[in-house]
User: Fold this.
Amino acid sequence: MADIIIIGGSIMGSSIAYHLAMTGRAGEVCVIEPDPSYEWAAAPRSSGGVRLMHGLPENIEMSRYGREVYKDFARLMDVDGQPGSFDFLENGYLYLVKGPEQVAAAEESWRVQTEQGVPNDLLDRDELGARFPSMKVADIDAAIHGPQDGFIDPHAAVLGFRRKAISLGVKYVQDKVVDFEVSGGLARKVVLESGERIAGDIIVNVAGAWGPKISAMVGMTVPVEPLSRNTFYFDIRGKIETMPLTKDPDGVTFRQEGAGFTAGQTDTGVAFGFDWEVKHDMFDNKFWPVLANRVTAFEALQVKRGWAGHYAFNRMDGNTIIGKWIGGLDNFYVATGFTGAGLQKGPAIGRAMTELLLDGGYQTIDLSRMSYQRVIDDKPLIEKGFTA
Ligand SMILES: Cc1cc2nc3c(=O)[nH]c(=O)nc-3n(C[C@H](O)[C@H](O)[C@H](O)COP(=O)(O)OP(=O)(O)OC[C@H]3O[C@@H](n4cnc5c(N)ncnc54)[C@H](O)[C@@H]3O)c2cc1C
Assistant:
């Protein structure tokens, strides 16, 4: 028996567990997670980017809290004098746009950021070229530069939250949820692959790209699909100036990774569903032309490895869905649909879910617009500018 059962113990599950535990409720929390190494979870396979560069106030505020937590992570996740080993690399973010439509969306997004007190710069082509001399900017019309943005080691983030939550008394069960016992409008028990059944008062489904299938076990539908994304690591000859995490107008994103770089692409034309195959031809045909067009030093790059990871892709509007299953089982909660920006929202989602469960409503960031109600009403919450 647990008061609160959390399904999935990656960044969302472990952050929720940590935030619940910090209120003194650790003994009441049980996290079900099949893989303590997180080999397949999205979080460790992500780019680890944290940006204040969003077009919705809620997303800016969530990332702002994420940034605060990650910048202070080693201290916050200290267990018995052993700090979580961690760096927040403040290399910045850069969003490049071309054409009137992209420029208008970027300007609108930048205005929202400015209203929220984010010190981002809207650059014209000349300013951009002067700031990043290695970049070829002739085809770029404008850019947003976020100097306070950066990236973290996402695997360390998951393990840091998990280790701290366990040290505070949260129980992790290494198993998989395969079914539920439901009666009287409530999910009473989770059924595990091992055959064990655990009763709970509240169930929270944060199983990432696997989450929609788990929600479907109790009849809840969410407009969220697994979407495979390939990331490649490459080396270049020689050195260039420190680069921000850059999103090209043609969809490719790249950032520094140690001595080399990683690159990913959102719009790959890949069908929904799990697909672990690394498509090297996609790098040659789609990634490389964009990279070589942007940075001269990328013309002669050498790919060293690639991997696939999965977004929990919200096909309705790309945005978070958090809260109770309105119109469904009264004790069934989800946080899903993070698409390509859940790592940075992990801390805020942990705090928000804790507020929902313990206080009955949001105390810090009001995420009411991100409830399941907009799915029922079919009212997308559209974000302009940089989206994952
Ligand atoms: C290529 C790529 C790049 C990304 N880049 C960024 C970025 O730069 N910045 C950013 O903020 N976000 C980024 N993201 C998104 C981010 O990684 C995700 O939004 C975030 O990791 C979601 O966390 P999660 O805990 O919901 O899911 P996951 O990390 O996927 O974890 C889900 C967990 O559920 C567990 N699980 C599965 N089935 C079951 C079951 N039946 N029972 C119990 N547990 C189960 C899994 O083992 C797993 O540990 C990126 C994602 C990808 C794929």
Summary: The chain has two domains: 2-84+153-223+316-376, 93-150+226-313. Residues 100-115 form the longest helix (16 residues). The two ends are 39 Å apart (CA to CA).
